[in-house]
Amino acid sequence: MKEIELPISGSGFVPDATLVRLAAHAWPSPPRTPDGRLRLVIQALVLESRGRRIVMDTCIGNERERTMSPLNYLSTGFLADFAPAGCPQLRSFVQDARVTPPPAWRIG
Description:
Elements: E1 2-8, H1 19-23, E2 38-43, E3 45-49, E4 52-56
Antiparallel strand pairs: 1-2, 3-4
């Protein structure tokens, strides 16, 4: 389930993702917009196993203050989009799926 898609500048976010380097790879969909910006896609995964439906969510969420202006106070229909996709009931169990890397992996 796609929550949001944002065109972003590669500088500062992925500085080595130049147009030449991106063009060298076979992508299932274009990694950039027609004007050359990167496509940042935030999405949840829906898994079904043993009669249970599990949503792995990024927990970006609406109406939160953030420093990245396109994400500041989001207002999306993310939860409402599940029903038309065949997932009408999602409220029985919620698990925050944020992963914090160990300190050795952190940059900066």
